[in-house]
Amino acid sequence: MRIIRTIAEMRAAVREARRADRSIGLVPTMGAFHEGHLSLMRQARAASDLVVVSLFVNPTQFGQNEDLSSYPRDEARDAALAADEGVDILFAPDAAEIYPDGFATSIHVSGITDVLCGAQRGPHHFDGVATVVTKLFGIVAPDAAYFGQKDAQQIAVVRRVVADLNLDVRIEACPIVREADGLAMSSRNVYLSAQAREQATALNRALDAAAAVRESGERDGERMLDAARSVLAEADITPEYLELRDASTLNTVTRVDSDALLAVAARVGAARLIDNHILKGQL
Ligand code: AMP
Fold first, then answer.
1. What is the mean pLDDT of residues 57-67?
2. Domain range annotation of the chain
3. What is the pLDDT of residue 248?
4. Nearest 5°: phi and psi at 245?
5. How far, in Å, from the CA of 32 to the mean position of ligand 1?
6. Is 125 one of the annotated active-site residues of the chain?
């Protein structure tokens, strides 16, 4: 596996792959790899000739009071894990390579970024995500890019950018990978104390409780939300949001007549965690 730090070198590798008619799969990440990241790499490996994983802790998507400086970083470990998955290139530029002096462009997606994590974290967050992902698409020119369903709003935002800017890349959404007790894997889980780690399992249990209400035949979203709210309350968790929305428009859904996104975010101990389930329109 090659580690590439400059855009010029990355472009040269892409040109070489294109000349040989090789397909390119991109997995954008911020590192601190866990099984969730590795599952995206495996899906990219299975479907592409050249697999590129980007490792870039993107400063523009963090707020003033967020965890940019403490975000877990261990490039050597990440590189070894990516190499084990058969990744061809780890693209790990520094911040000045991506945002040189004079950088002045930002991509803003309206509407769908005003809700859920966009409302909680502020507009800079998804502006930062949309801008860096678009730059990565410009640098790597992938046939397909792999994202985790765990960040469901991120996928909706990236799909919107790709459609609106006519970018020639297929977006693949990959299932959420969980710990044995159901907690969605996250690089931020390392912030959890033993007690908070236990408490955090309530997020997935709350989503499961809502799904069970849906599976009993109920369509009224409020009933599902109530079931989830009571699990969170029992675990002493006050969510930042717990909402039922259309998975692509992110409009509020009150009746589950077609597949709907049930999404939750909460502070648990020192971590801000998110999770979601798709509630089925058809049982
Ligand atoms: P991050 O490094 O946190 O920016 O995540 C990089 C990619 O991995 C994103 O597309 C995430 O949605 C995805 N990802 C993170 N956690 C998981 C998980 N538990 N299961 C599946 N994908 C994940």
1. 96
2. 2-174, 187-277
3. 85
4. -140, 160
5. 10
6. no
Catalytic annotation, pick one of 34, 37, 124, 125:
37
Separation between Cα atoms, residue 201 and residue 183, nearest integer Å: 5
Asked if CATH classification 3.30.1300.10 holds for the domain at 187-277, the reply, yes or no, is yes
Average per-residue pLDDT in the chain? 98
Whether residue 26 has its Cβ less than 6 Å from ligand 1 = no
Q: Which CATH number describes the domain made up of 2-174?
A: 3.40.50.620
What is the Å distance from ligand 1's center to 265 Cα?
15
Q: Which H or E element spans position 25?
A: strand 24-29
pLDDT tens profile 236-249: 999 999 999 998 89
Q: For ligand 1, is residue 30 a contact (CB within 6 Å)?
A: yes
Q: Is the pTM of this model over 0.70?
A: yes
Distance between CA atoms of residues 32 and 202, nearest Å: 24
pLDDT of res. 181: 98
Measured in Å, residue 20 CA sits from the centre of ligand 1 at: 30
